């Protein structure tokens, strides 16, 4: 993975986590669906596990 791809991956993960946090804060009952969305993101994007370790 190039530096540009890595930076883009990290940014994408940050954006996703920020969005999910805001949405769950506004509608806590949506948490199960947001967890499923996050799991799908990690399954689709191999870089995501490395990204989350940086938080």
What's the helix and strand layout?
Layout: H1 3-26, H2 31-44, H3 48-53
Describe this structure in words.
The protein is an all-alpha fold. The longest helix has 24 residues, at 3-26. It has three helices and no strands.
Quickly describe the structure.
The chain is about 80% helix and about 0% strand.
The total beta strand count reads 0
Report the sheet-strand fraction. Answer: under 5%
| Shape verdict | globular
H/I helix tally? 3
The H/E string reads HHH
Average pLDDT score? 84
Major β-sheet annotation: none
The stretches of 5 or more residues where confidence is low (pLDDT under 50) are none
The end-to-end distance, rounded to whole angstroms, is 20 Å
The structural class is mainly alpha
Query: How helix-rich are the residues, as a percent range?
Result: over 70%
Evaluate the radius of gyration. 12 Å
Features:
single chain; mainly alpha; 55 residues
């Amino acid at each position: 993975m190039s530096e540009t791809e890595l930076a883009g991956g990290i940014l994408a993960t940050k954006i996703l986590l920020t969005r999910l946090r805001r949405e769950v804060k506004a509608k806590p009952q949506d948490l199960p669906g947001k967890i499923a969305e996050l799991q799908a993101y990690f399954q689709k994007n191999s870089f995501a596990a490395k990204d989350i370790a940086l938080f």
